[in-house]
Amino acid sequence: MMEKGPPNSSEGQQGWFSARNGSGSSLDLESVVQPLALNPWDVVLCISGTIISCENAIVVVVIFYTPAFRAPMFLLIGSLATADLLAGVGLILHFAFVYFIPSEAVSLLTVGLLVGSFTASVCSLLAITIDRYLSLYNALTYYSERTVTRTYIMLMLTWGASICHGLLPVLGWNCLAEPPACSVVRPLTKSHLVLLSASLLAVLAAMLQLYVQICRIVCRHAHQIAVQRHFLASSHYGTSTRKGIATPAVILGTLASCWLPFAIYGLLGDCSSPALYTYATLLPATYNSLLNPVIYAFRNREIQKVLWAVCCGCVSPSPPFRSRSPSDV
Asked: Is residue 84 within 8 Å of residue 125, measured between CB atoms?
């Protein structure tokens, strides 16, 4: 999965994220057979993957088994939770396969799963942002068949692109046969990681532009309501405006703080970079999948009602509520 040095290597470059060791040697049979020293970073990633899987599994089960959650907004949240769930499972499988069943073929599969799931997670965030923007921009026509069709198209594009990215290492776009072409995440090639990092930066830029437009619409709507109700001089206008701007700021700020360090490092780093830097930038990126359920699902009042009903043992097959617009979440 990665190029491993001897067990007493000072850099502790076990696992998947690495540069080359001092000798520049690639993974060989001897390094596969030898037992690996446990890398604390891999343990932390495995624990993070377990928590991520549990969190998002709850969201997926709630949305799947609640008939009322068939609105486009909940389908996109379910897509995000599914992607993050697969990412958590991928982190667990990575740990298990590296330390218990070392195999290059299996390593490619787990790396492909992680690349595909994280790509689906970021693309789902973009789809949710587009849906929120359209729910404000076309508020009168949002609850129509066109919205449902558009949602399914976004889901197909999201998962189609993610599956393609995940299959690339498995189908041959990897550096196992040419170690110098490796990126900071072995066995991804430098060119592949540059493509992923550039795509992530493009998604961040698109989300920033959409949230700027969302803030403008929110401010305009709040101003119009304040004028109609003669509250322009009161604190109501300022409070509603701050609330409308704070939510996009938290969402975009969380995504940027989690993924931006890894995206920049993926563009600038190479196979000779210390593994420590890769772990230090990738770990915050995994925390985005940890925070997504809190931001997009557990804050939703309808999902909260179902969770409370399940905890109290009074599950209702169809909770009596009407889904709010994505702009209200």
From this structure: no
Number of folded domains that form the chain? 1
Q: Which of 120, 294, 291 is nearest to 203 (CA)?
A: 120
Q: What CATH number is attached to the domain comprising 169?
A: 1.20.1070.10
3-class DSSP state for residue 182?
strand
Residue at 323 is within a domain: no
Interatomic CA distance for residues 291 and 248, integer angstroms: 15
Helices (H) and strands (E) in the chain, counts: 9, 0
Report if residue 140 sits inside a domain: yes
Residues 155-204 pLDDT 10s: 999 999 999 999 998 888 888 888 888 888 888 889 999 999 999 999 99
Q: How far is residue 306's CA from residue 309's CA, in Å, rounded to a whole number?
A: 5
pLDDT digits (tens, 9 = 90+) for 119-162: 999 999 999 999 988 888 887 777 777 888 999 999 999 999 99
Please indicate, yes or no, if residue 320 is contained in any of the structural domains: no
* CA-atom Rg of the chain in angstroms: 22
User: Is pTM beyond 0.90 here?
Assistant: no
The most distant pair of C-alpha atoms in the chain lies apart, rounded to whole Å, by 78
- For residue 318, being part of any structural domain is answered with no
Q: Which domain holds residue 281?
A: 31-174+185-305
Tokens standing for residue 18: 């690495």
Residues 6+ apart with CB under 8 A from 31: 4
